[in-house]
Amino acid sequence: MLEEKVNELVSEFWTRKNEMEESVESVGLYVVESNDEYVTVAAEDIDEQAVLYLGHANKTMWIERIVILDENGFEKED
After folding, report:
1. What is the mean pLDDT of the chain?
2. What is the mean pLDDT of residues 18-35?
């Protein structure tokens, strides 16, 4: 499941965008879209996407909040 893969990234910290993208790929996901505020990720075999909202301090970034989107792009309800 997508949420399980994304949760593997929660405790990580990065200083460069490419480091973060490598971590995303290491758990079987790929980057769909990214900017300074968030990264949207997906997996080949899953219809959902996840938006990872990033926190920043100095030159370090981390995941502050995760929003799972359904196949239509709407926030998935628990």
Report:
1. 94
2. 95
Burial 39-78 (b: 16+ CB within 10 A, else e): bbbbbeeeebbbbbebeeeeeebbbeebebbeeeeeeeee
Asked if residues 57 and 14 have their Cβ atoms less than 8 Å apart, the reply is no
What's the CA gap between 51 and 25, in Å, rounded?
15
Cβ(41)–Cβ(50) below 8 Å: yes
pLDDT band for 1, please (50, 70, 90 cuts). confident
Hey, is 53 helix, strand or coil? strand
Confidence label for 76 from pLDDT (cuts 50, 70 and 90): confident
How far apart are alpha carbons 31 and 21 in whole angstroms? Answer: 7
